[in-house]
Write a sequence for this structure.
């Protein structure tokens, strides 16, 4: 049976592909999309969710969530995702709307389910505070790293935006899988992958344009030869767990460090003497991952 999923996201170029992968996979029952401020403001990321769903003919509830982190000012990634949060393609008119209910209520209405989180963890933390962990089957999140960060030397963007929320999530007792930069940096969108996307028709060309913009910012900011497709790896883990190799480890979230705020402290060798609280991704079958992405887009393109 398909896995019921609520996708909490902040589109975002890679979030857009994550939405398409979830909607195009027969292994996932995508029940709702909820948005959170992170890559851009809540207004912009919600409009981006509407844009990509309109382009692909995806009809699931879209709900706005939290417009600010729990205790800190919002920090956005305009240098990576552009002014709109999803710069690049010229999207057509919106054909899907947004429900009036808050994201937290929409999450609860569709539980029990797997919660896939590809943005800051503000909505997820607020859900757990209000309703507790019982109805969440598992949380699979893109965030953190076992190695270096991408926003500060040791902090990955999603965790950096709201480390207090991340601390709540990792301390919740819900089964968690953390897909960090150490793995997503293996999922590079090469020119060959862009060519495969472009060959899939109008939706594929939209994705190719998204990735072309993404490639330019990653080259300018980080010096990458090709951009990493972070967020879809979390969705792929739900579709086929064998694609992502994980190990059990304790993950702590740094909330007060002068230079390390937002760092994920991953105790791979048990030095802290703490019980593991997460499955931590350490490897990715890159070829099979991109086969999954391309096939999902082909499915959506043929509808």
């Amino acid at each position: 049976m398909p896995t019921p999923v609520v996708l909490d996201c902040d589109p975002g170029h890679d979030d857009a592909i994550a939405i398409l992968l979830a909607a195009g996979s027969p292994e996932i029952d995508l029940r709702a999309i909820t948005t959170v401020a992170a890559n851009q403001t809540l207004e912009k990321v919600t409009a981006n969710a509407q844009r990509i769903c309109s382009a692909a003919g995806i009809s699931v509830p879209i709900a706005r969530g939290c417009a600010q982190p729990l205790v800190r000012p919002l920090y956005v990634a305009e240098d990576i995702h552009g002014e709109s949060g999803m710069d690049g393609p010229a999207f057509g008119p919106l054909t899907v709307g947004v429900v009036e209910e808050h994201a937290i209520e929409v999450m609860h209405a569709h539980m029990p389910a797997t919660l896939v989180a590809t943005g800051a963890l503000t909505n997820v933390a607020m859900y757990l505070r209000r309703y507790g962990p019982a109805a969440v089957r598992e949380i699979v999140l893109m965030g953190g790293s076992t190695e270096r960060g991408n926003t500060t030397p040791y902090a990955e963007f999603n965790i950096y935006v709201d480390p207090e929320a991340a601390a709540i999530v990792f301390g919740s007792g819900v089964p968690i899988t953390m897909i960090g930069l150490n793995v997503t940096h293996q999922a590079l969108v090469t020119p060959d992958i862009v060519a495969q996307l472009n060959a899939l028709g109008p939706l594929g060309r939209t994705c190719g344009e998204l990735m072309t913009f993404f490639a330019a910012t990653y080259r300018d900011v980080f010096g990458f030869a090709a951009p990493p497709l972070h967020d879809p790896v979390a969705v792929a883990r739900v579709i086929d767990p064998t694609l992502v190799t994980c190990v059990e480890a304790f993950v702590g979230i740094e909330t007060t460090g002068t230079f390390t705020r937002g760092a994920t402290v991953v105790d791979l060798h048990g030095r802290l003497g703490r019980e593991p609280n997460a499955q931590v991704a350490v490897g990715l079958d890159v070829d099979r991952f991109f086969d999954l992405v391309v096939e999902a887009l082909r499915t959506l393109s043929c509808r």
Notes: Residues 3-302 form a domain with the Inosine-uridine Nucleoside N-ribohydrolase; Chain A fold (CATH 3.90.245.10). The longest strand covers residues 244-253. The chain has one domain: 3-302.
